[in-house]
Structures
1.
Amino acid sequence: MMEAMSRSFLYLLLAIGSTLAFAQNAHAVSAIDLEPASQMGQKLFSNSGTQGMVLVIVHGNKVFIEGYGRTSLYSREKPNKNSFLRLCSLTKIFTTDVLAKMALDHTVRLNDPLQNYAPNGALVPQRGGQPITLLHLATHTAGLHRELGYPPNGAAHFTYPDYALRWSWLPHQQLRWKPGTIASYSNIGFDLLSDALASAAHKSYADLLNERTLRPLSMWETTFYPSPAQCSRLMTASIDESPCTVTANTEGSSGLYSTPVDMARWLKYLLGTGYPVQPREAQDVYLMPNQLVRIDGLNYAGDPSGIGLGWVHVLPANDPSHLVEKTGGGAGFLTYIAIHPASHTALFVAVTENRRPSATHFNLFRASNTVLLDLVGAPRLPEPAGAGKAHAKTRRGANASKSANASKGANARKGANAKRNAPAASARTRNKSARVPGKTAKKTAPKQRAPLTAKPTKKGHAAAKPPAKAHSRNRARR
């Protein structure tokens, strides 16, 4: 009882501190009119060639929500604030939200080895004497593959692999490089991270997420366990439909469902304009590009200036167009969140892919950045090198390889998948390309925050059986 009261008091102090910080800066932020967002959203939807879209923009306490297109191939219904959505890889920033809170209350430390939370008898691989830590998992620097492997034929989206399979797979893996040296996008890493958090908390991860994040924010429709009523409202793509089902097997990486109303609450939380507010440590930069050999698969929305806990920073914090973003995709969806901290404005967009897209070289993430920056009156991001080629594809998600094989990036991904799901070559960003043109990362990048610390804890689970060989296409997740 006393522990629970102490934890509640800690959260209250964090919330008060963040609210005061916002209030001190609020006088410097000009009020932004969200009325143009409707027309901007219509243009974004038309240019994307997608089937359906929902757009949520929050500025301070102002909320804009609008739907475009249709909810499914044969429906005339327009998406609305209560449409049910797949968040895909936006799930990862919910996982790191829980991680940051557990680090702040000393349940875990970011530099805790994953081995501390492994099932009984499961040995987590190392390389170069460096163990995988929770921070490595949260920053895609653990040296793991992007995916465990191909899901079985007929497996529903975001239901593979399960806990037993990934923990029987992991001990037999050789890490691709020494942890902490290369950032390479990994879905399996985030599922292992959620397993570790559940182990540290001695409860299921779904219960942990509800307790720490969803329930305090009244996000009642954000879940891994959709009801029949919710499934009846699920937006679907015309090219890659899959059953609306329980997705708790990928609860750390990609399984969450939600609604635009819930995502508006989430954006307020991220901005610090609602109550409670997110601890600032959850959005901090923990790795700079010049600390890494290279960065793979993290530049879809812009070249990283810093890597956070699931988040990617684009441009340095002192740049007027600095963004904090996270991309997602899979099961016929593309999802995206971008935060413009300087104006206390954030954007969420979700689209479902069309059978015959009118724009096969349209980058929804970068176009959404333009919408957000134009709305707040900030300069647009610089055009990336090779714009209109590999970086400008809109075909993400489960059928990405089918629709983009003509591009060099898609062919690279196909070849990489043949090598045990190595990251997409088209997503590779090396140190030089990850810096802002004309500036150096050392001088302009946000200051790195020291990792949060806490005492490690252990909890064991029964060892799992070895994985069966799977034969199916890989359902890509961003």
2.
Amino acid sequence: MRVIVACMVLLSLSLALLVSAEEVSPLTAAVMKFEHEYYEMLNANQSTTTPLEQGKGMTTAYNYATATKLFWLSATAYCTDNPSLTSWTCTSCKLFGSFHVTAVMDDTTNQGFVGYFTGLPSTPIPGSIIGANEPFVVVSFRGTVPSKIADWIEDLSFSTQTPFSAKYPNVKIHDGFWKAYLDMKPKMMTGLDTAFSMSGARAIILTGHSLGAAMAELAALDLKLNEYQSKYYATYTQGTPRPGDANFASLYNSVIGASFREIHHADVVPHLPTMSMGFIHGPTEVWFNSEFSSYKVCSGTNGEDPTCADSLKLPVSIEDHTHYRNVSVSGVCTSTQVDFHLPEPKQVTHFDGMERMESQPTKKAPVHKIILSEDN
């Protein structure tokens, strides 16, 4: 452990001049460089498989239209104006469409909401009996406050706990993420009971961005194991930090029907907490290029696919973390009325020029705002 810390400190000194003021601190950049080298070392020592292979394969049948529809729910979790959220009149609310809110979770630090709706462009759980036109219950968690992201990254701890120890004593998860979720759980459960009763839904979708994405994954596993065992589960998230260790990733992979983690190019947050400290992602990663014009659906068995975001040598962009689909995730809810168009990216198998990112800052995508007609 001391060797790792010493290496990170030395690397921070060498990288101090390579990171712009708009990006992460030199220390965080040093951690990211060390992390990439650590990951390459792990893979080099494997004879036939990566060190992060999971048993059961997760679905890779990603549908961009369905994911985009659900993205508006992640963005709506940033609505701190409760009246506009509960009445479903915020900008991102209107972009999503008809939705019934059954609970708003707010402990002054974290926030989210519960509700239900009917119909998606495609089934959110490919390969299951759940159809696209069914009613769905949703839990959406808010991410980290944008102005504090750099500090939040710097202060991110590596402590873990084993909340499922009665049945799964070796499954470790991030202590801070778990505590944040537990603060939301009482109101979430009230909202879920109401939503299931009113909708008759068989499936629950959990969404979120940043910290909210980690809470979404933890909530999905907790609800499946301890609360609504008969329901079908899917998570659609953006910029998800690693919630737990390899045992968590394996268990999550075995009981959750579908999980799609979108990563915008060099977004730094999905690479934290680090693999060198024992944290691992489960599948399925969906990796977008900087301009959001193309994406790759990564391995369905390895959440740390070496051909996707982990291939970057220095993923240090906060800009990529705060912007998905070329919009500010936290700003869509209250956006002013300006022209807005979503990208329509193509699925590809290889991103030319993305694998060798060194010290160059990520190309910043244009920030778009939204215009809605008065009829909406």
3.
Amino acid sequence: MNGEDWRSLLTDATKEVQNRVSKVVEQGEVSKVVEVGASGDTTLVADKEAENELFKALTPLDGLRIISEEAGNWGDPHAPLVAIVDPLDGSSNFERRIPFYCTSVAVAKGDSLAGISWALIRNLVNGDVYWAEKGKGSFKNGIRLTGSKRASLRDVVLDVDFSRGPPELVAKLARLVTSVKRQVHIGANALELCFVAEGCVDSFVDMRGRMRMTDFAAGYLIAREAGAEVTAWDGSPLELPVRLETKISFVASGSRRIHADVLDLCR
């Protein structure tokens, strides 16, 4: 399939996800747990409903295997394409009725981060759709994204996740956090990488080594295609296998200048 085919299929599939998740809210089942997923986290009924809709769209495709936060690995392990799926990113927000959560799908050629070629993330609260194709840019609702243009740390809105991180990591990040205009973390990593692409936040830092590939893959391509720098905390390229068990630390910034300053403070 070409990029337009992927965009159409994933747009339709994630719209169905939004419809199903909305019905779970209407039925008052936001906290209902059905099982423990492959990632080890509890699976809400909304997680399962969202995954079912994505699998309905993806499993009929030849030559495609799936990695999902809930179901784990599905399909032929030697398939040339892999879909990396987080059916409901921001489940904790959803369960607590915080209106910030999304569904995330990336498709890679092969089993490395460098092979990610298509990505779509849908905000399940307001329906915004972020889309990227490798080498062809990133878009929000059809409008091209170009990331942040800010050049000074004192103007930066920094997204940093140090939740459940060790005290020494929090201490290490203190100088960075106190050097920027504002620090936030909203609780849906895929959507927050889209905010880097969009320029809503200027940099996103997660050095805990805990983020999963299912949270990261689609947002990574969307941010990169918008011109963002996305590297390891020491500035080296991210060269990672696309696997359920892969855990990630990274720094993503909308501009090269801000990225250099953030990396310097992270060190």
4.
Amino acid sequence: MKFRSGVVSCVAGVLVAGCAVVVGAQQSDGSKPPLTFDVASIKPTPPEEQRGIVHQPPGGQSYEALGAPLLTIMTVAYTVTPRQISGGPDWINTDRWTIEAKSDRRGTSDELHDALARLLEERFHLKIRHEKRDIPCYILSVDKKGAKMPVHDAADLLHEPIGGRFENGELHLTGQNATMNYFAFFLSRGLDRNVVDQTNLTGHYDIDYHYVPDLPAGRGGDGPPLINGQPVSADGPNIFTALRDQLGLQLEKGKGPVDFLVVEHVEKPSAN
């Protein structure tokens, strides 16, 4: 996950509240002990540092953050959107942190997420309460013509994170080794509602689709709308059409169970 103020990709659905998802997800089989970070450092980010990033470096053994608020790091660790987190003091969304954490063994992306969550709970004394709420959302299902995504080898720990580029007036998004549960989370970050996975697809898939992003309401100015200095396509597919025609998935408004996190306790970590 990377974020930087002023990056117009947030309009395109790659960035939400300044954050771009750049991690994939795989499921642990539960046959081995939970992955933990053997070495971990958490420090305040110097005010002169303007960059912000939360990501899994290559190798599948570590997590890094630079200039990221705790709230942002929590969205990565628990794979939720910011709107699913409530409670806690104001500083969880203002103070920025630098984290370097490494395990002595390689793990899946989901194992790294879980290890990051445990690290936050230990070092920030973070205590959260989970609440399932039935709310208006988008239901992700398989189109009647069937899914069109290539199946990826689930045993492959390497993955290409879901990332995008703006090209020829459209946003192009690609990724490898993604579960549908994770893809629903990724879509949730760029839409006005959370996405609930009801595809019943249990494999790992390669993602490749393109669409014309919606622009913020009230965007004015003369001439055609621009993203990264490029004109937005006037006749390309929207995200709903792109998912159906290119991936064989359907996105419809509905109501479904969404996990919410309530922060019950949190403290700033001690110096390390």
